[in-house]
Amino acid sequence: MTNMEALWSVGRPLSCIVFTAVFQAISGQIHYSIPEELQKGSFVGEITKDLGIDLKKLSSGAVQIITEGRIQYFALNFQNGHLYINERIDREQICRRLLTCLIKMEILVQEQLRIYTAEIEIEDINDNAPTFQVEKLQLNIPENTPLGSRFLLPDAQDPDLGINSLQSYQVSPNSYFILDVQLTASGTKYAELVLQESMDREEEAFHDLILIASDGGIPAKSGTVHIKVVVEDANDNVPVFSQSVYKMAVMENLPIDSLIITINATDLDEGINSEITYTFRQISEKASEIFHLDPKTGEVRLRQNMDFEECAEYEIEVQAQDGRGLSDRANILLAVTDVNDNAPEIAVTSLTNTVSENSPVGTAIALLKVVDRDSGENGIVICSILGNPPFHLQKTFDSYYSLVTDRALDREETSDYNVTITATDKGVPPLSTTTIIPLKILDKNDNAPTFKEKSYISFISENIPPGTSIIRLKATDPDWEENARIMYSIVEGNMKSYLLTSFLSINSETGVVYALRSFDYEEIQEIRFLVKAQDGGSPQLSSNVSVTLFILDQNDNAPEILYPFPPTDGSTGIELAPRSSEPGYLVTKVVAVDADSGQNAWLSYQLTKATEPGLFTLGLHTGEIRTSRFLLEKDTLKQSLVVLVKDNGQPPLSASVTVTVVLAENIPDMLSDLSNISVPVDHPSDLTFYLVVAVAFVSCLFLTFLLVLLAIKLHRWRTSQLCENGGVNFSGVPVSQFVGIDGVRAFLQSYCHEVSLTSGSRRSQILFPVGSCTNTLTPQQAPSNPDPLLITDEANNLLGGATGNQVSIHISIPLFHYKDNTGIYAF
Question: Do 370 and 308 lie in a common domain?
Fold first, then answer.
């Protein structure tokens, strides 16, 4: 260490000359030396250079200066990295009589989380002149005082140290007294007047002297006191203290007005010469405020509370003086005993209020400084964290602690912490201080959205209007803000994506699924698709859920009559009922289907109109038309029956068809009867012959075609049972609910034979609808205008001259196949 002394010349201002010494200790401490009383803003040291800190990274948050006490004597210039004087520094006020005056401070480098200590030594300058506590002093000296008698003079006080402190005493020139300067055991100087010439009160009753106290500074400073010597009659005994040194240990928490000590001095004289007065002879300004000395009793009492942390020891010099001016001196040494009257102090020097939940174990959150102004056991502090948070305290340097994480953090479990730190000393009773550090855990996208259910099922009716809300899907994400913002989308389904998007739409924010168009149960019965919930984090996380929509049927399809076929040319189909038939004879069967399902497709048949009521019966659920009694000759040849087919929906829908039944034994009889009804008796007899020939020819051709077609159908049924061209395909109708019978599949093969006879024309046609001879009975596939098979012109000629009236004959031979789970039943 290199010390530099400051030299001041007379008349030059103190602030004009500043010397600074910089030291580097092997422990990493920085030592500066400056004189006291420097002006505010004076340079102390280039701290960034000494610490090795990059000036570009220097900021108020990067480097902090922490000093003890309330007054911040130094400040750091963040532009050039220099340390400057911030407040006036008075060495005597800070360090009092200490030989070495050090101001300690700590430099916190935030980026490195490193603490440097700096000591700034305050060098003394001669800024205080010696002063006396009194300006005037009167000494009453008897005239018979022997030569060599000594008279104690008041001490001058100079708070400076070393050469700048009190160095010498001088007295103004006189004939009676000389000055003798002595040293006390503690090294302080005091002056005594020594009588060297006998005094004669009658010759000279008063002597005026000037006592000068000087220090060794450059320039030297001095203080004076006026001494007036009054020559009196003899007082030959001086007061004597019972002890030269009074020692006492006192607790710092003594109450005010407590008795500290009682000093005692005796004087063998009598009267006024023995009346002793006690006074403080040498006492510091602070001690004079704390202690009070009774001048009569010598009791020293407490005037203000003592503080061990401020001053642990007091040295006071007292004086006992009799009424004639003779005096004695003694010292009082008071040792203040510490009590645990200061709770620990916690200072947060560095703090991070937020930490990410994926921070590694050991992440530093805060830097704390814990101090206790007490000493000994009272000043030993133990720090702890209240509860069991995922943090612990780690001692880093001296009284510094780091708050670090000791296990993984999970914001979804706990998003905020109020870390309570308690510092407790080892005093009796112990004192403690608590501080709370709020800490917020920052979210990371570590949770994917989850649906409440593993899959969702919804039932909706067909024919709902577009835009109807179908189902609301809700996913939750325990993350926060953007990481928890969920977007919904439809990703795939049981149909092609472009078809799925034409049926359904989902609100990306609410998860509500809407119908974009009406559903038709006869087209589609269920829709399966996946909905993806994706959060807004980075990287994005998602999850899928399966949704099944079942379409519920409504009664929106009326029954469709497949047989008899509706006429396309204005003619009415004719069914044959032999007159010899018995009651219960199956005349024909009305076949109808309903594209709906369930009870909406349960069909019932009603006979709403008949030429002769009671002649025929209609099966309520089978649609079979049977004779209810024997046919009579008087029964009308042509019976017209109106059949109503109605489903079981709400409201029910229906369809009707007109069935014409001719009462005849066979086709020739039927034709004959029809001719008798509509043709005059005198028709040519050749007409019947040609008609029979034509009918026989057509019948043979029809039977041949029927057998071939039946063989083909049986072969296909045996190989595939139900292939695309082998069964009845009702568009939009589930096969499980055909003709209203649950579990039964009906295959209808109908072959129609229609003969149209027209009188009054040379053309006659016998029609064979080719389209009706297929194995599919859907109206869409039935030909609207079948191609006829023409008979020879001879037959047309025979029929052409018969009559001018029209006779239409419709011969239908239905063949039904019903298939259930057990086999095939034919009717």
Answer: no
